[in-house]
């Protein structure tokens, strides 16, 4: 069975200074206004890292370049896929996100094909689910699969409008 992983909907960087990275991408590359969400908490009841409960906090900042969502992630507390990345390679391109039409089937298919799930979980009371796959074989550190509720999609549309108005 062929599984559709959906379109790439996001490109993300991990940084140790979200404000400096926003400024670089805005000034040097003309990216629109950013919407920053400080201190987003990921708790051990809804997030796993290497199969174990994870408890961490990150600053998240988002914008759009056309229809492509750009995300910046700055870890601020705890151990996560983001702190591991910074420790290993410093700031940089972290993942691309695909939005499959059937999240559970896509995650299962990726595992059956030997792609390890490094971190997974849900946010906002289950309004968003995510799974980060080891993307080294595809030339990117990680590949994220995401499932987004109508409420999260509405937030994304708001961020897209803010970016376009800048």
UniProtKB/TrEMBL annotation:
Q: Which PANTHER family match?
A: METHYLMALONYL-COA EPIMERASE (PTHR43048), METHYLMALONYL-COA EPIMERASE, MITOCHONDRIAL (PTHR43048:SF3)
Q: Give the VOC domain ranges.
A: 7-148
Question: Mind telling me which SUPFAM superfamilies this protein's record contains?
Answer: Glyoxalase/Bleomycin resistance protein/Dihydroxybiphenyl dioxygenase (SSF54593)
Q: PROSITE patterns annotated for this entry?
A: VOC (PS51819)
Which UniProt key words apply to this protein? Answer: Metal-binding
InterPro entries associated with the record: Glyas_Bleomycin-R_OHBP_Dase (IPR029068), MMCE/EMCE_epimerase (IPR051785), VOC_core (IPR037523)
Q: What is this protein called?
A: VOC domain-containing protein
């Amino acid at each position: 069975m062929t599984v559709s992983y959906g379109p790439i909907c996001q490109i993300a960087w991990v940084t140790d200074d979200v404000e400096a990275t926003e400024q670089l991408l805005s000034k040097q590359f003309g990216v629109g206004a950013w919407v920053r969400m400080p201190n987003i908490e990921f708790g051990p009841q809804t997030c796993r890292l290497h199969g174990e409960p994870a408890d961490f906090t990150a600053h998240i900042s988002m914008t759009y370049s056309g229809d492509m969502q750009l995300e910046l992630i700055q870890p601020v507390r705890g151990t996560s896929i983001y702190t591991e990345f910074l420790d290993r390679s410093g700031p940089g391109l972290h993942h691309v996100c695909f939005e499959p039409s059937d999240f559970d089937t896509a995650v299962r298919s990726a595992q059956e094909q030997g792609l390890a799930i490094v971190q997974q979980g849900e946010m906002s009371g289950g309004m968003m689910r995510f799974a980060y796959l080891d993307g080294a074989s595809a030339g990117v550190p990680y590949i994220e699969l995401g499932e987004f509720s109508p409420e999260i999609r509405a937030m994304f549309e708001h961020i897209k409008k803010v970016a376009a108005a800048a």
